[in-house]
Predict the 3D structure of the following.
Amino acid sequence: MANPLYDGLFGVHAGKDTTFLYLPDGKTLSYQAFLHTAAQIAHVTVKLGLKPGDRVAAQIEKSPEALALFAACAQAGLVFLPLNTAYTADELTYFIENSGASLVVCDSGALDNLSPIAARLDAQIETLNADGSGSLLDQTAGLPTHFETVDRDEEDLAAFLYTSGTTGRSKGAMLSQNNLLSNAQTLVDEWRFTSDDVLLHALPIFHTHGLFVATNVMLAVGGSMIWLPKFDLDQIIDWMPRATSMMGVPTFYTRLLGDTRFTKDLSAHMRLFVSGSAPLLADTHVQFEDRTGHRILERYGMTETNMNTSNPYDGERRAGTVGFPLPGVELKVCDTDGNTLPQGEIGVLEVRGPNVFKGYWQMPEKTAAELRSDGFFITGDLGRVDEDGYVHIVGRNKDLIISGGYNIYPKEIELVLDDQPGVLESAVIGVPHPDFGETVLGVIVAEPGASPDLDQIQTSVCKSLARFKHPRELILMDELPRNTMGKVQKNILRDQYKDMFTNA
């Protein structure tokens, strides 16, 4: 029986007593113990009637057991759908319905809200809490710690990650076994990971960065991870002496630089710092090197592709760039018709390789619009390649906001704002922020004679949308800038408010 993803990341470590996870309470978890739990969860999915190809939606806190659920899905041939823990019940309804999830796994605290949704959508629901308790693990008692791995092809789906453009509903990016495994193996080679590495892991695992990059890379080499539930500055500093590497978003590095305990001596033994999910300010790159002597390695990836480019491990890691295309990945800069532009010109980045997704779940028109017949994916990002071959991301062809590594789609927020009392219309933009790369700013136009209550509007937004989507501020304007065709010129708004938080 063959199952490329499970065999390549998990099964290869069967029987190993070496440490897989270092936990915040000082305990450790071996590869063998971890795989025993995963096998028992796989047995539970069979007892629940799930079959290969069924989808499992999981909105759960980061824990060893949450990661074991991913391993169990891989072993049982199920499609894993990790969901941001900040999503509201309204948001989750769409993901569960669109994916056709057979099983929803949530925190016990969300059970009352999600149970009616799951019942209406004919999905089973189980609980899994941050401490490993819950109905899912309760059912593993007495089950075998061996599970016969389900046979899967490398092109079979392994996971969905939901993404979207600036309009329309979210799209389920279908990721195959080979998409995930090939990218992990490439990054191992490019970033020189070995079984001796200990990765300081403080990223969420509902996102490609924390799960399909950081975790998969360490699984591929049989290394260890310091498994922190979230970024906590004190914990990061306490654990760093035991680590050899760290992957993070720009916020991690700006927070470290803001603490006097983060010194050259503290990081002297570290081998590698990687940054991604949002643009790293060149100033942060320079400050980090001045403080520690380390040059952060910045790379570029997407939900639909995992990693596309990387600054070199050996060689110049150039601030303000995302390096070179990874081996096996083709990258070109095109005009809107897909014609390749001359070197140095700015255009839309398109990529092709084994990392590129299979398309959008049940959305053939969206797939055809963004994934060309020759395999090139239209990223929507604007970039250029300089004379030395370094890729520069200069903006986005869409109005997507990336804040702290999370994708935020303005239209979703605008719909909520437009529905508030006294609001005629709104525009949501991303503006530079020193910690998060970008942050959300909402611009509102009042109905004639109305005086919208901005505090009350913020309260309504908080009830409807996940916290990372909340506007940092709301601004009242008499009218939105428009072109002669009546289209809102968000570029003017972005330019007007570009220094709002950077000079604060």
